[in-house]
Amino acid sequence: MQLTNRRKVVSDKHQTLSERIYFPAVVKGMLITFSHLFKKRPTIMYPEEQREIAPVYRGRHVLKRDENGAERCTACGMCAVACPAEAITMESAERKRGEEGLYREEKYASTYEINMLRCIFCGLCEEACPKEAIFLTDRLVESEYERETFVYGKDKLVEKIDQRIDVTKRQTPEVIEFKKRPGLKHNSLFDKTQIDRHRKPH
Amino acid sequence: MKVTIDGIEIDVPKGTTILQAARMIGPQVAPPAMCYYSKLKTSGGYCRTCIVKVTKGSAQNPNPMPKPVASCRTEVMDGMVVENYTSPEVIEARKGVVEFLLINHPLDCPVCDQAGECKLQDLGYEHGSAKTRYEFKRREYDMIDIGDKIKLHMNRCILCYRCVKTVDQFTDKRVHGVIHRGDAAEISTYIEKAVNNDFSGNVIDVCPVGALTDKTFRFKQRVWFTKPMDAHRNCDKCSGRVRLWLKGEDVARVTARKDEWDEVMDTPDGKSGFICNSCRYDHKRKTDWVIEGPSPVNRHSVISQNHYQHLNELKVQALKQQKALGFMDINKKP
Q1: What residue spans define the domains of chain A?
Q2: For residue B173, what is the domain's CATH number?
Q3: Which terminus of chain A, N or C, has less C-beta within 10 A?
Q4: Residue B161 to residue B47: CA distance in whole angstroms
Q5: Closest by Cβ to A92, choosing from B27, B129, B219
Q6: Residue of A nearest to B31 (CA)
Q7: Which residues of B are less than 8 Å from A94 in CB distance?
Q8: How confident is the model at residue A191 (pLDDT cuts 50, 70, 90)?
Q9: What topology is assigned to A61-184 in CATH?
Q10: Interface of A with B in 68-97 (CB under 8 A)
């Protein structure tokens, strides 16, 4: 009975003379090795040289400020609940009188941490954010010596007021229009045909 | 009296409303209700969310009712035929009602503490449309502190009157109500007088939206990051049966236990399940309580996120399946 067509017949036939002296096989291997000296080198000498990456590359996160410089994040927790790796934690606080220029909404994230060792850079946090506050960027997460330093707090995540991070490539009108497509999960809840499925008791 | 709702027939006593009859059948036919609260007398009839179509008035008079009716205030007649979810007209009308409720309601769910357990949010998802057509300025009020434990955020109020009736019926002295009329109506205390009696905290539980919130819990946690646990303690003022919302070992907040209609549950011996302020605000250590176990959470609710309530059941099921397939039992010692 033949179960698969990938089976191999094992034979115990003896090696030929050329195989037995090994030398032709060694020469063949060395030829391949030396031929690579004359081929184009695929290594990129990071960080002097950098690979060209797409503008929508999913790299290190940024917490955006709005046009007035106030933090957009309102600590609603949608990113943390969407995160499949459970990398995001946050604590919220109430905005005090006089802090209107610092935080856009009446509630803000007093701490916001992303564990970059847990993060899988899937971009679901960006998709879940209702305030357009968190974006993944084309920057890379730098290497560190300690595990603790990979937990990025607000000091590393919030963009500096004088060094804004450009995310316009991720927010083109096409992208915003794409987010409204009926097939996407966060739109399906508004789909009438989904009402029955949504309401049925388990 | 026999009444048929969405094709399902049920026998109910005289004086039952359509909404109560529908709830007896189950959640698949029960209309949503924002203002009706079965534990509060004279509640209902304000929000119009529970409207249904009566296609046959009764056995004697089989004519349909001309307009959709509020099911919380309409009593059943013998032989009545009601359409709720099976009628596209009702769904369309309810969508309109939701749009009206949302006219002045701010769309600040990311900020609001009620998000995740808000009935208006659920209603909006199920029946509303994704966009608002309202172009004018929404009504705006300053936030009011009702006592030192309750925050009234009048912008979010949908004027269901539940809190007014709660204070009216469960506390000895009524000190807050609705002032002004129509579009200008608002919940207020008399000259911002503090509501202070032992059961005033229950207005937080009956509020279907985030208008009345617990100041001791305000902005502390999103509800879906906390874990609901049923617990009790000996309390001389109330039943002492509560739901603790735990974050790790900390009690984030204490609420009354709610049933599947989002109403405060009665105790098994028929006593009122509304809890006193001392249980709600002053006992926020886990050691104050006897924990009974995790509260039942609807699987479709965001609160069920990462809560594996049925983990043991799942394990048993998986073991059964493995056994049926002839897998080796890894727990069995040779």
Answers
A1: 61-184
A2: 3.30.70.20
A3: N
A4: 10
A5: B219
A6: A199
A7: 218-219
A8: very low
A9: Alpha-Beta Plaits (3.30.70)
A10: 74-78, 80-81, 86, 92-94
Residue A134 has pLDDT above 70, yes or no: yes
Contacting A residues, span 118-177, partner chain B, CB-CB under 8 Å: 130-131
- The type of residue at B250 is D
* CB within 8 Å: B110 and A198: no
Q: Which of B26, B130, B300 sits opposite A190 (nearest CB)?
A: B130
Q: Which long-range contacts (CB under 8 A, 24 or more apart) does A186-192 make?
A: A186/A127, A186/A128, A187/B130, A189/B125, A189/B126, A190/B125, A190/B128, A190/B129, A190/B130, A192/B91
Query: B306 to chain A: which residues are within 8 Å by CB?
Result: 86
In a domain, B317, yes or no: no
Both structure tokens of B255: 């609420």
Residue holding tokens 């036939």? A13
Give yes or no for residue A197 having a pLDDT over 60.
no
Contacts of B108 in chain A (CB under 8 A): 105
Do B203 and B150 form a contact (C-beta atoms < 8 A)?
yes
What domain count does chain B have? 3
- Residue B143's pLDDT band (boundaries 50, 70, 90)? confident
Domain range spanning residue B244? 223-311
pLDDT of residue B320: 80
Mean per-residue pLDDT for B326-332? 63
pLDDT at residue number B33: 93
Let me know if residue B324 belongs to a domain.
Answer: no
Closest CB to A131 among B110, B220, B224: B110
**B110 lies within 8 A of chain A by CB:** yes
Instruction: Out of A74-83, B158-167, B249-258, B317-326, pick the least confident.
Output: B317-326
Dihedral sign computed on CA atoms, order B324, B327, B332, B334? positive
- Do residues B224 and B303 lie in contact, with contact meaning Cβ atoms separated by under 8 Å? yes
- Residues B115, B194 within the same domain: yes
What CATH number does the domain containing B92 carry? 3.10.20.740
B113, B95: one domain: no
Rounded to an integer, the average pLDDT of B227-244 is 90
Looking at residues A24-33, what average pLDDT do you find? 94
The reply to whether B274 and B304 lie within a common domain is: yes
